[in-house]
Amino acid sequence: QVQLVESGGELVQAGGSLRLSCAASGRTFNNYIMGMGWFRQAPGKEREFVAAIRWSVGSTYYGDSVKGRFTISRDNAKNTVYLQMNSLKPEDTAIYYCAACRYFDGSSSRAPSNYNYWGQGTQVTVSS
Question: Are residues 2 and 24 in contact, defined by beta-carbon separation less than 8 angstroms?
């Protein structure tokens, strides 16, 4: 099985930067996981796609609301995915979740239902 643990969520001021980390573990990770992604959810709202990365080659995908501001990356040696968030806005406030999927393509990567494993989430709060 695969375990995902997020870290790095904090209270930051608008315009600031923050980097989230998601450490993946499990003996079957390399054999089963094709992609990893970040989602976020604010109170009373649906879970929103933020970014995704194809694990093998590092190709990336982004939600429209974060293009040009957020960057997803990976460290293969550490089995860790990162989300660098710049120019943060109050509307970025949410719980951010790391997720992993067994099957991956450009369209399916945006849907939470296509992900098989989820972390516990980390709170990001952006003050105005």
Answer: yes
67-79 burial: b if 16+ Cβ within 10 Å, else e: eeebebebeeeeb
- d(CA 6, CA 25) in angstroms, rounded, equals 12
Distance CA 68, CA 46 (A): 23
Alpha-carbon span 82 to 70, nearest angstrom: 10
Q: From CA 69, how far away is CA 80, in angstroms rounded?
A: 20
- Give the pLDDT score at 44: 94
41-78 tens-digit pLDDT? 999 999 999 999 998 889 999 999 999 999 999 998 89
Q: Which residue has the tokens 């790391």?
A: 98
Phi, psi of 37 (to 5 degrees): -145, 170
- Are 20 and 74 in contact by the 8 Å Cβ rule? The answer is no
Record the tokens describing residue 112, joined without a space.
């939470």
